[in-house]
Amino acid sequence: MYEKVGNILKTAKESNTAAIAFICMDYVMARTVVYAAEATNTPAIVMLFPEHVTIQHTTGFEKYAAMVKELAGEVKAPIGLHCDHDYSYEAIMRTISAGFGSVMMDGSMNDLDTNIAVTKKVVEAAHKTGVFVEGEIGHVGTAADSDNDKTDLYTKPEAAEKFCKESGVDSLAISIGNAHGEYRDTPHLDIRRLEDIHAATSVPLVLHGGSGIPDDQLLVAFSKGINKFNLGTEFLGKYFQSVSDFAAENANNPDPVKIINMPEYVQSKLQPYVEGRMRTLCKF
Ligand SMILES: [Zn+2]
């Protein structure tokens, strides 16, 4: 069933665990997450990366929101819909008008006061229609640039406290040794810093750059205030591998419309992986 992200994160916080938000670029990925959630009886979040609309054209904003709500209606498990990294008030308003009840205003490339100002403006507008807003403080950079080792990008607990208080944000993405994409070396989350941020704030905390962080570190982080965990790179990699496998297995299949069997094949390969992530990491 379709559920507000705010409610899913509230439950995660009460359970001292995290809901996984999977980047899904199309129907196959979204359907996989929804049915894995149902199979494992686990709340989950289907998440759009805006560039999949604006650059890769794998979907559209309104179509995506409607698609996820329809899929959510097919199952009993709580399914949230969220839009990842938007960078301006205008982009957020477009996302909200397309039907998203949960958005991310990423102002983390700005100085603290500018980030607070732009996020506060978004929060005030979003809350008028009950839309949930995730902000970011510190900066989650790029794993390929080893940004996860650059401690000057890490979130400062006192800045997080000020940011939450003044912006009114509903959840907070933080930088504690995590980064987007594929890590060059095994990342090491700064758990002490997480504890300090958790003590200084009251909103659910969010961990971006989830692909490649060892499970033992993730489980510790989830017990210390991380209530939403974004997974994209690894899931997209598994998708590519499944498509490659389908192509290899059907290379000599003479059926001219063999492509129509690809979505179900891919889902059958991806779903065990998604279920595994949920069973291992989500303790609702
Ligand atoms: Zn991110």
UniProtKB/TrEMBL annotation:
Q: Does the keyword Manganese apply?
A: no
Residues bound to dihydroxyacetone phosphate = G181, G209, G210, S211, N230, L231, G232, T233
Q: What Gene3D superfamilies does the database record attribute to this sequence?
A: Aldolase class I
The record's annotation in CDD domains points to: TBP_aldolase_IIB
Q: Tell me which UniProt keywords the record has, alphabetically.
A: Metal-binding, Zinc
- Which GO terms are recorded in the biological process aspect for this UniProt protein? carbohydrate metabolic process
Gene Ontology terms for molecular function:
aldehyde-lyase activity; zinc ion binding
Necessary cofactors: Zn(2+)
Query: Hey, what's the signal peptide range on this chain?
Result: none
What is written in the cofactor note of this entry?
Binds 2 Zn(2+) ions per subunit. One is catalytic and the other provides a structural contribution.
Q: Which Pfam families match?
A: F_bP_aldolase
Q: Which residues bind Zn(2+) 1?
A: H85, H180, H208
UniProt key word Metal-binding: yes
* Residues the record lists as binding Zn(2+) 2: D106, E136
Per its UniProt record, what NCBIfam families does this chain match?
A: cbbA
Record-given protein name: Ketose-bisphosphate aldolase
Organism from which the protein derives: Sporofaciens musculi
